Structures are given as structure tokens and as C-alpha cells.
Amino acid sequence: MTLIGRTHDRGVATLTLDSPANRNALSAALVGELADALADCGKDGDVRAVLITHTGTTFCAGADLRDPPHPDALVGLLRQIVDLPKPVVARVTGHVRAGGLGLLGACDIAAASDTATFAFTEVRIGVTPAVISLTLLPRTDPRALARHYLTGERFDAAEAARIGLITAAGDDADAVLEPVLDGLRRSSPQALAETKRLLTAKVLQTFDRDAAELTALSARMFASSDAREGMTAFLERRDPPWVL
């Protein structure tokens, strides 16, 4: 079964996360398919930009707890988005949790509808948002990120735009993106590639400096007793024992 839909319209390749059974969670299979699709877009001279969107009411529920990707694979996917020589745009009309927020941080532009909600839920299941910090720490307001990382509370699209997690929010994500995609179609492919290189230089420096350490932290946390209990509680739809 294909987990990533692919369409093309006037230079924009649309990649659709299409894994409704697990709310588009980042399974090993989905991460692999998305990486392959992005690689194809990078080599296709007819692709001016990439739009990542989703089916259903959830953009991405974070890591698939039953079939999680290896941390190295997730790091590779996030870096691939940042390093792709073509702009990558996210269209969000549903909920985004945990690792899904790392995808938004990797994209160059992200727009969400007002119905979208966001949450860094890692601390509530006994882990930490380690790997996704590679894209989020360089681009997101640090004081706001501290609150949302530490509490796991849910926030809306207006707050996501305020803190720099997304570019813009509105009643209709497609209406927000219409001038964006028009602008990309009017731009020189060479100029887009070099301008993106300018914009992502500091993010890529973060990968070079911190990827190994954060990958090791992620692996250690997922192997911990708190994580085992937290993930079990999540799958059993109950509170873990540390909830007061």
C-alpha cells in the first residue's frame, strides 16, 4: 500500500501523507516513502517546488509507536527537506503532534487552517523532542518553545504562527498558499535554490553540530522505563503513573 500520494501541477509536486490507519504517524515505512518521493522531486527538472499535505483530519500524529522509524532515518528525512534545492511548503488542515512538528520546522514555508491544533506531546509519554529540535530550535521563539516543550499543552494555529512554527494561518489554508505558490512559479529555479541555501545555512550547521548527540538522546529516552510505561499507557488510553 502506498503511503505517499504524488501529483504534479504547473511545477508544484504535491506529496500527500496518506496513512489514515495511524493518523499519518511517522512509521518506518512512511518515512522511507516520503524520503524517496523527495529525492525524486529533487532530481526532476519539472518540479519547481514541493507541497507536503495530508489526508484526513490529522497532518501527522508524530512517531508511530508501533513501528517507529530509526532516529537516524528521521534525522535524514528532516535534513533532506532542509537541504532539498527546491522550496518545500507544508499545507496543514488538521492536527499536528510531536514529530510532525519537526516536519513543519524543516519546511521553508508552512500554512495552516484555523482548525489545526499543535502539541509537543513527547514529555507526556516519557520522552523528549530531541531529533525534531534540529529544525525547531533555530527557527522558533525560544521562550514559547520552552513552554510548549515542557508542558505538552495543545495550542492553536494563531499561536503556531506567532512563535514561528508556521508561516501563516487563516480560515482557508489554500487561500493563504495561493500567492505563495504563484510566487514560487514566477521565480527562477536557480535563484530559488541559492536563496534557499542562504536561508537554511544556520539550520544545516545545527545538523552538523548536534545531530549525533540528539540522535543518541532520542534512542536513550525511547529505551527508558518511563518511555515504556508512557507509551503503554498511551496505547491503553490511560494516564501513566506520574500524572498527579
Description:
Pfam families: ECH_1 (PF00378). This is Enoyl-CoA hydratase family protein. By secondary structure, the chain is α/β, with parallel strands linked by helices. The chain has a domain of 170 residues: Alpha-Beta Complex (2-enoyl-CoA Hydratase, Chain A, domain 1), CATH 3.90.226. The chain has 9 helices and 10 strands. Strands 1-2-3-5-7-10 form a 6-stranded mixed sheet, with helices on both faces. Strand 1 and strand 2 form a beta hairpin. The radius of gyration is 17 Å and the shape is globular. It starts with a strand and ends in a 9-residue tail after the last helix.
Biggest sheet layout: 6 strands, mixed
Name the strands of the widest sheet in spatial order. Answer: 1-2-3-5-7-10
Q: Regarding CATH, which class of the domain at 4-173?
A: Alpha Beta
Kindly estimate the percentage of residues that lie in beta strands according to DSSP: 15-25%
What sequence of helices (H) and strands (E) makes up the elements? EEHEEHEEHEEHHEHEHHH
Number of strands: 10
Which structural category do the helix and sheet elements fall into? alpha/beta
- Measured between the Cα atoms of the first and last residue, the distance is 42 Å
The DSSP helix count reads: 9
Question: Do you know the CATH architecture of the domain at 4-173?
Answer: Alpha-Beta Complex
What overall form do the CA principal axes indicate?
globular
What percent of the residues sit in helical stretches (DSSP H or I)? 40-55%
Low-confidence stretches: none
What would the CATH topology of the domain at 4-173 be?
A: 2-enoyl-CoA Hydratase, Chain A, domain 1
Q: Report mean pLDDT, rounded to a whole number.
A: 97
Going by CATH, the homologous superfamily of the domain at 4-173 would be 2-enoyl-CoA Hydratase, Chain A, domain 1
Radius of gyration: 17 Å
